[in-house]
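request received
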Amino acid sequence: MIAGIVQILLFQGLGEIIAHFVLTLIPGPVIGLVLLVVWLVVRKSVPATIDLVASALTQNLGLLFVPAATGVVLFLPQLKAHALAVAVSLIVSVVLTIAVPALVLKLIVKEPSGDA
Amino acid sequence: MTPELPAIHEIWVYLSGSPLLALTLTLGAYECGVLIYERANRHPVANPVAIAVIIVAVTITLIDMPYAKYFEGAQFVHFLLGSATVALAVPIYKGLAALRGRVFPLLLALFAGAATSIVSAVAIARALGADNAIVGGLYAKSVTAPIAMGIAERMHVSPTLTAVFAVTTGILGAVLARYVLDFVGSKAWWQRGFALGVASHGIGTSRAFSVHPEAGTYASIAMGMHGVLGAVLIPILVPYLPL
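response:
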């Protein structure tokens, strides 16, 4: 468990260092993610300790958004003033963003019927 | 009787000064959210994150705690978002084997979906008169929240608004996906899952897993690809969009 935490923190730290000095446009944790995927591909398996920590984090991902998302209290007046624009934009956009990739895949992939 | 009053007051001062209160509130509110979600038979509308945010926001307003003060304590939870982003490597690695010969169609679908997300959201918000701060929060809304917040920081737009829009988008996608996918006639589970992952990142992915495992795997691949490519391309390409 602790070994898994240490390894994930090391990849995160390595990502932050690279983000700071080399790839300044990409967030550090994303670089850490890519490095960890590459490392897992190279060693061809997931170490049990990393697997344990990663599933604990990803299964409770929702919790980690709460402090930042609560910042909505700071934007309430602004959101109220633009409520219609925000609501219409979010709803229509998400409907289109689901529909477009689904249509692209449906049109360009010929699967034998029955695979559905 | 009177000597007890200062004692209670002192405890309150101590509690609101340490991270204990903010941490207990955050974890307790999320636990309430999860319990309500389970009670509602995992109905997408009863999203645990939305419930927790409402509980925390109402509580800190009632006890007159400024958001900055709350965040000072809750930052320990917030810090883990970075570690959780790195940890997404594990489900992505496990999903790689499932990709087989589908990399090209999936990339094409991802780019089409990502462009649709940004262009439609920004164009509609602008047409309805939203200001620059609101529009800036919409750029990365279909990217998983921890990465979206990183993108927002790099683009000098509000990470908080971005997080709020990302979570809202996740919930909306999870609620609406079934109807949209049926309407466009999408049938294969992997295609339905991938489309949901492109639009609604982590919240859509957990919804997809609860419907069908193949849909869930492809949703998590979509979320990971959108996160990594979005982090690279959104800050570079958005300034060139005619918006």
